Amino acid sequence: MSATAAENFADRPVALVTGAGSGIGRAVSLDLVRTHRIAVVDRDAAAAAAVVAAAGGVGHAEAYAVDVTEEESLQDAVRRVLQTFGRLDAVAACAGIASGGTVETTTLGDWHRTLAVNLTGVFLTARVTVPHLRATRGSFTAIASDAGTTGAMDMAAYTASKHAVLGLVRGMALDFGRDGVRSNVVCPGFVETPMARGIFADAPEGTEEFYRELIPLGRFAEAEDVAAVVRHLVESRYTNGHAYAIDGGSTAGYYRNPAAPFVAATGGSHGEH
Ligand code: NAP
């Protein structure tokens, strides 16, 4: 970005987004860049650079190649963010990985890898950014999952990591609320991203349709739907310690698609009771 273009956006607040090279983090970055200067953080340098290119003209974004499990490289990136932008107002911790398996079939290696990215990554991101959020009375938003509030079959490590993120961020809401720092969690159901595409590509035929049938709104979320919730939480003045479900209603209660055959509703023998 040219010096003049950077100057044009110099009065905007600053947001740091992890996992910003793909899916939800990408959509969050491209949404927030309309009002914020953005630090686009991803372990994939080319993907982060592509998001910066896509944000060109709309606002000021810079790419940082960082693995969120490595505290020193995160710390170094935050130092550079402060040098470039001078402040930090909002953090969206979107970096995460999927992993399958029950407690019997999850290897210890997969367990450690999943918790390292999904939980320790959020912890470290918070640890290196909270001091700067305190200075601006800013906000921290983490992307957990509906698997952070309900059990999910065959996803032992993932479910444990996401439940833990809710606990971590709720604790932050208490620890830093007095400093004016708000901390919240977003809990999406399936979202149309490379992560979800990968899960369905590896799953038996019919899996995608099965999960879509469980959603009252009848579709998976778009990454932009989640980005709109993140924006809401960033802009909110009083929301703190909240876990925001964005899942089309799938965790609202037991649900069956009214279009699907169900004996009680169609006058079958059980319907007479
Ligand atoms: P995605 O498209 O795979 O994007 C995740 C991004 O995070 C990728 O660019 C990935 O890089 C990056 N990343 C992974 N590990 C990292 C690390 N150690 N350091 C830095 N960056 C790292 O996935 P998504 O669907 O957007 O998922 C974003 C978040 O939403 C995750 O926390 C996920 O658990 C959560 N979520 C997703 C869904 C869904 O259905 N998609 C539902 C509920 C919650 P690589 O490509 O190199 O791995």
TrEMBL record:
SUPFAM superfamilies assigned: NAD(P)-binding Rossmann-fold domains (SSF51735)
Top-level taxonomic group: Bacteria
Oxidoreductase among keywords: yes
Pfam families, sorted: adh_short_C2
This protein's UniProt keywords: Oxidoreductase
CDD domains, sorted: SDR_c
Single GO molecular function: oxidoreductase activity, acting on the CH-OH group of donors, NAD or NADP as acceptor
Protein name per UniProt: NAD(P)-dependent dehydrogenase (Short-subunit alcohol dehydrogenase family)
Family: Belongs to the short-chain dehydrogenases/reductases (SDR) family.
Keyword Protein biosynthesis in record: no
